[in-house]
Design brief:
Distance between the termini: 53 Å
CATH class of the largest domain: Alpha Beta
Helix content: 40-55%
Radius of gyration: 20 Å
CATH architecture of the largest domain: Alpha-Beta Complex
Structural class: alpha/beta
Strand order of the largest sheet: 3-2-1-4-8
Order of helices and strands: EHEHEHEEHEEHEHHEHHHHHH
Number of domains: 2
Oligomer: single chain
Amino acid sequence: MPDPLVSICMPAYNAGKYIGDAVTSILKQSYSNWELIIVNDGSTDDTVQQLEKITDSRIKVFHQENKGQCSAANQAFHLSKGNLIKFMDADDLISSNYIENQVKCLRDETNAIATASWGRFYNDDLNTFKLNDDIIKQDCKPIDWLIQLMDKAQAMMQCALWLIPREVLDRSGLWDESLSLINDFEFFIRVLLCTHEVKFTDDAILYYRSGLDNSLSRLKSREGVESAFNSINKGTSYMLGYENSHRVKKAAANSLQSFVYTFYPYQKDLTSIAEKRIRDLGGSTIPFPAGGYTKILRDILGWKLTKGIKALTGYQ
């Protein structure tokens, strides 16, 4: 049988500094039967100029007015033709054998989803890359995978981790365009729960770019906090609808507790709603993450007063 076509769907907004590297990591893939659909979401930097440098016929570029990442990802999917789909951010990188090994991992499966290893690098320096220690390196049922990942914190759902059969997306639906911050949490829980298995791919690594300088403003924005809360609330509700058990309630409470730890004291009404839901679910088991002086302050003053002081002083 011929190798299946893999469609890589890449929304891009003001990604001029990074998109060349992201595209290069795809061009270097050992697997050749792919198409890359880039949707420029109304960028105002030099993204368009960087995209004009692309000459590979497998890469198709489209432009739209700024409508958000989810809209651009959905548009890329609608323009794609492959039976296997990968969503990928315009600032991340993948190892050269990534797609080949994920295709082999799925084989002819249409009711499973492939995942991989990942780690972070900071300040655009790959020498800072460190592989994540909490990777689940086994095949398992989606609900088991989610619960295991949420045991200590809110699950990370980076786009490029996954290779998804088109049939799964036909069942799950696409990205929720009402969401912005943490939109992948809701989306991938919904997608995962429409499959029968999560399959781990050996020797495939996602290099996740971290340390970008726009995170604090997003934490303070009402729209960002509302999106984060709604995404976590929806995603955990899907899990509870799938299995209303003690272990799922604990996982849901832990994800909400991570939201509270991250976003308090910004928009306290939403963190208060989250805290009530945590109590209704039976409580969370994850402690406030702290080290150094923050840990000392937390032990003396409690985590809320500690975060309040840090917010007032601008220290994050």
